Amino acid sequence: MNTKYVFPEGFLWGGALAANQxxxxxxxxxxxxxxxxxxELGTVSSRVKDFKLTLxxxxxxxxxxxxxxxxxxxxxxxxxxxxxxxxxxxxxxxTRIFPNGDDEEPNKKxxxxxxxxxxxxxxxxxxxxxxxxxxxxxxxxxxxxxxxxNYELIHLFENYTRVLFTEFSDxxxxxxxxxxxxxVNDIHGDWPICIHTGLKMDIGDNRFEKIxxxxxxxxxxxxxxxxLCHKMxxxxxxxxxxAHIPSYPRTCDPEDIYNNFWRERYKELFFLDVPATGxxxxxxxxxxxxxxxxxDMKEDDLRLISENKxxxxxxxxxxxxxxxxxxxxxxxxxxxxxxxxxxxxxxASDWGWEIDPLGLRYSLNYLYDRYHLPLFIVxxxxxxxxxxxxxxxxxxxxxxxxxxxxxxxxxxxxxxxxDLIGFCTWGPIDIISAGSGEMKKRYGFIYVDKDNNGQGTxxxxxxxxxxxYKDVIASNGGTLQ
Length: 481
Fold this sequence. Notes:
By secondary structure, this protein is an alpha/beta fold.
């Protein structure tokens, strides 16, 4: 064993899943419809002009079955246990607990399912990290309330979280909203429904104002959730999460430096500034004025935000991007949620995501320096079209990706002094892609026999990376090369 990369004792190695991408069973045991249930194959979230909350005959909806974790969870968690997982991040489907979001009583079958999942995790000594809302709000809240623009959703969300804290009271780690900053991507578009906030848009609406009003309500809901968590669950920790994609100026042109600085603030850091510091940053109100936006903020809500700050910062990290004030001069780069221009110093995956291990170390230092709160990498992974015809699926490219990122995380801890709780790989088992509904964009250490058209046996197979990650965890990083 190479002791060079041994992580601190108690470091949480594991993986992360989202209910709408793995569970399936979309109408079983009283589950209601979520916005994710209406996403077709090939759609990027709900960013299509004709997106409606209507299920069409003859159309394939990948999330309706997904990989059927709902019926395979024992098998899957056993495999995670075999790998030695110390933690597993899952999300709760709001519609399994409250099918319409505003039901008077919670769905007992939904609560029972998650209790069974947590019991199975406990069997293998896997620490659960529960995400409360992960891109799957009840569609009834969009249709009947207009989504997070409506203040009433704060109360409905509080009712939902109170049930979770009551029923799953021994869970130590909680995350409120998955990648809360993704909402800003819906500002510059013309799609009629914004999946991240549940907003319904009409022609002529001030999209900017409506989205930031919804974001404010999510901040208030976050503060209420933090308050409730600290009151009901002694010793538990609760955090906020963003999609973290470090953005580098393409050149040293001051225009690139300055514009990239503000871009990072608006697209990400703002979404941590508020829940981490308990107040809106100085630039916020000027930014609203410049965009003709008037945000309704109640004094009691601002006080609530100030008094209930998060305990840790969770984030996803897959890549970095480069930014130019003159993007027409450069080749366009692909990205997860946010895109930029191509970085000539980095290689990319088959989906165009640029691979930047050192960017993870930079990010850990940057976020820890800014907030002085413990950090948790709750998503990181490599999507590839694995060759399932091999007797053993040789995904050395995935091993190489994780090997380099794990080492940079280690350096951030041991050489730089960053407080890092753990590292969750994204999609430890193949799941439906959030961005496109594909299966062939695979992230897992475990292969699931299913194709882009929903055909397959759902059989699980271990890839080469399965055994590699098992050794990494068993050695606490000591086998990293």
